[in-house]
Amino acid sequence: MPDLTPVIAASTRWLLNAYPAPAGAFSRASAESQARQATALAAALRYPTAMDVQLLDLLGPGGADRLDWLTGNDTRPDDAAWRTWVDETVVSWAACLLADPVLAGHAQRALAATEHHGGPGALRRLLDPGTHDVQAAALLRHPDLLEPVAALHRSELVARLSVEGAQAA
Questions:
Q1: Environment class of residue 135 by beta-carbon count within 10 Å: exposed (0-12), middle (13-18) or buried (19+)?
Q2: In a domain, 168, yes or no
């Protein structure tokens, strides 16, 4: 299976820059783990086959410009390289999954229909966060703060998951 790592890493980094964790190494690590699980799941659903991933490698994901404009995220010149690997749809879907645990559960079940596989417990922090996980990702999981990003591509995610009446986060 071709590798989604560049898109997952860049999309995770974008989410963490836009919705930072509180101070402290453990909080940052917990928030990063949750963001990475959400973007990995979103990327696997967005690019479900090896052919999809190969097309992504050929065409590229599109970058973070629209997301930055939407959220008012400030960029630095030295961020240009990784930002080109941000996938707007993956970030939007990850925001949906972070804000809505029920939708994240549907997404985990839909993962079986893709060519990607996650090990048992691979999404524990996303699906069943502990108290510290919730505190560490307070901004990253806040539905109102995520709404502008989540709303961009929520309808496509809901359609992909065949979920009726999914919340508007």
A1: middle
A2: no
Cα 59–chain centre separation = 20
Count CA atoms within 13 Å of residue 115 on its CB side: 13
User: In which domain, by residue range, is 48 found?
Assistant: 5-161
Residues 161 and 40: their CA atoms lie apart, in Å, by 16
Total structural domains within the chain: 1
Report yes or no on 167 lying in a domain. no
- The tokens for 101 are 């645990």
pLDDT confidence of residue 80: 80
Q: How much is the pLDDT for 73?
A: 79
Count of alpha carbons within 13 Å of 167, Cβ hemisphere only?
A: 15
pLDDT along the chain (169 residues), means of 10: 87 95 95 96 95 93 91 79 94 97 93 76 86 94 96 96 61
pTM (predicted TM-score): 0.92
60, part of any domain: yes
Q: Is residue 169 part of a domain?
A: no
State which amino acid sits at residue 20: P
Which pLDDT value is given to residue 79? 78
